[in-house]
Automatic annotation (TrEMBL):
It comes from the Bacteria. The keyword Lipid metabolism does not apply. This is Glycosyltransferase RgtA/B/C/D-like domain-containing protein. The keyword Transmembrane helix applies. Keywords: Membrane, Transmembrane, Transmembrane helix. The chain crosses the membrane at residues 21-41, 85-103, 110-131, 137-154, 166-189, 195-219, 244-267, 273-296. It comes from Pseudomonas fluorescens. Coiled coil: none annotated.
Amino acid sequence: MKLIKLKLSSSKKTSSIFSGTLWAALIFLLLLLALMNEYILPRYFFYDSRTISSFIKLGTGFASGDSFSSTAAFYTLFGVERNSIPFSLVSFFTVFLTFNFYLKKSKARSLDFFEFTLIAFLAVLSMAYMTALSKELIVLLFIAPFIFFSKRGLPGLIAWSFIALAYAFFFRTYWFLLIAMFWGIYIVFRFSRSVAVLIAAIPIALFALAVFFVFYLGVDLDSYRTLVNDVRIESGDEDARTMILPWVQGGGVLTGWLNSFITWITLMVPLPLFLLFSPYHMLISVLISILFYKFWKAALLEFHSKKSPEKAACFSLVISFTALQCIFEPDYGSYVKHLSPFFPMIVYAILKDTSASASKGTLKSLQNLVKASPRTNRTIEYR
């Protein structure tokens, strides 16, 4: 992992030694977690892993829209088995190198202690979720090169979209909706100057989907989540504490839209998770809230400056993904797990252009913007 200097002390020597020690400790912890995850973590982290393993034993092949069957077939191609040390090492290096790549591309010169803590938190979650048999590791494999494609403009993003569409066909059909929403948000990011348009884009998209679900599919927008959670409640699932329950009772376009929109907000500010008053869930809630605060702060800066098409693409993809998850995610734990392949991208989007030189560039851009403003506006300001 790129060892970015931590701003921990006024002494350069002390700061460098402490930085190196913290990075080394983090890398050791991540490797230990990758190799010993099923011995360290609670069993609910590995429900998918056990299911995928059972599908591997059945010898299932790729099947359209069947995520477990296709995931098992993918791992079978490489002879992967559950609790395999070689697989744990390969998945460790895949996650590790992806974080390293995105940190390097961010060109961040230093991190404060809180930023380091946030990166460590995301890296630990990534190792927990993606070093066992999982669907998320497959997502990471085509999320990792996203920045390469985005740097090549529209042709690159179109090429990446076809890869994502292939994934949607075999693994998760809702990715068809995700790609459509990604392009809509990306167009807003690149060509709109109105923050109101950006803020309204997701609620409008969700309302359009609510209409489509009710009048074309004959179900409410949040029906999938409600169905899954009803089964879990009836079965007395002991690990269902983090379920996302309906905010508004009833059915129809408006109710489905409201439940999904409110859920989208709570995916970024997971107050219901905090109110479980479990130290683990409270910590997750606080860190996810701060992560998205920093994410949206950086996103709005990019929206105004229009400096980096690749950052705009990253912001658009993450925003679109969270918007789709508010429709389909049954609980907050699953949401964090499904978000984990995007963690390196989120870190990049937050840290990119935060160096001293970048700050000067941003200041200069703002000064130029003021100079370019109409004279009448400047007169009013000085009054």
